[in-house]
Amino acid sequence: MSLKFTIIIPCYNAESWIETSILSALGQTYEDLEVIFVDNESTDNSLEIAKKIQKKYPSLIIDTAPNLYKYSWEEPVEKALSISTGDYFTILGADDWIIPEYISEVMKIINLDPKKIKLLQTPIRGVKADTGNPMGEIKHSYKSLEEFKTLLFERCPVTTPSMVYSKELHNKGILRWDSKNYLGAVDYDLYFNIAHHNYFIYPFPKWIGYYYRWHDNQATWGMHKEPTDYDTLIKKVWKDKWKVN
To answer: What's the CA gap between 26 and 18, in Å, rounded?
Structure first.
């Protein structure tokens, strides 16, 4: 019996890229798959584009979620997880895309030991939005949970776009996004919480098919303009919790 996989596509104003993202998800070679698109109160034509695609691909699940927190995908992701039926899930950026074999390759890795591999990250390849030119590969390496914890206080050692999660950990309350306190920095806090519960994010060393699109309207740049340094705040919270000097 195969493990079912869910691709979640949260979307806020991505009309320029959303068709490519959705079609890349629907075009996966892995058969036991569902794709859930959740619009986060877009003010452009993103939702209309998704509905047009759904007419051709009825398997595409479409829903909506309120946009409560800046630069965060908590609301659409939680909505998708409330209706998802997959054993594992990933969150595909509305401006990114994946090759057809991507989820099949992900599941090959997980199936090596599904009882042990509950979380996985792989390298991503950047692409410049306006030219399509490659912008290099981003990946992380560490060999133990303790090394990962040490790295967390230096930087975020995770390629968030390629993260794959076991739905079981969400059901247990371990996967949670505290957008009320951290806005778009919630993933950084999430990784501390995952480590706090002694779960290991396996860093697969080879690129298997995720393309990350760099452009001027990314939430990353918006977070950089925020008056609060959320990364420093998150580090302080966890240093206090873990009693790290």
So the answer is: 12
- CA distances from residue 25 to 9, 35, 42, 64, 93 in whole angstroms, order as listed: 9, 7, 20, 18, 11
Distance CA 239, CA 150 (A): 11
Is the sign of the CA dihedral 79, 57, 219, 206 positive or negative? positive
pLDDT tens by residue, 133-174: 888 899 999 999 999 999 999 999 999 999 999 999 999 999
User: Please, how many CA atoms are within 13 Å of residue 38, restricted to the half-sphere of its CB?
Assistant: 24
Residue 154 exposed, middle or buried by CB count within 10 Å (0-12, 13-18, 19+) = exposed
CA 119 – CA 202 distance, rounded (Å): 6
- Contact between 127 and 17 (Cβ < 8 Å): no
The pTM score is 0.95
- Residues whose CB falls within 8 Å of the CB of residue 124, separated by 6 or more in sequence, listed in order: 137, 138, 139, 159, 161, 162, 207, 210, 211, 212
